[in-house]
Specification:
Elements: E1 18-21, H1 25-36, E2 41-44
Parallel strand pairs: 1-2
């Protein structure tokens, strides 16, 4: 089972300071960096797997 399949969809908060599209390496790093700085961040990913650009078939 690929990473991420055990993550249940969550309700997206109605308010955020920053919306990051894509939970790849860069999106997750940016989200973590901003969250540590106190910014309200939402990271969205369309697939069940995170880091789609790093995956191979």
């Amino acid at each position: 089972m690929p990473i991420g399949y055990d993550i249940k969809p969550r309700i997206v908060p109605k308010e955020a300071d920053v919306l990051i599209i894509g939970a790849g390496a860069n999106g997750l790093e940016a989200g973590a960096y901003l969250a540590k700085a106190g910014v309200k961040v939402v990271v969205l990913e369309k697939r069940f797997e995170m880091g789609g650009g790093l995956l191979t078939e």
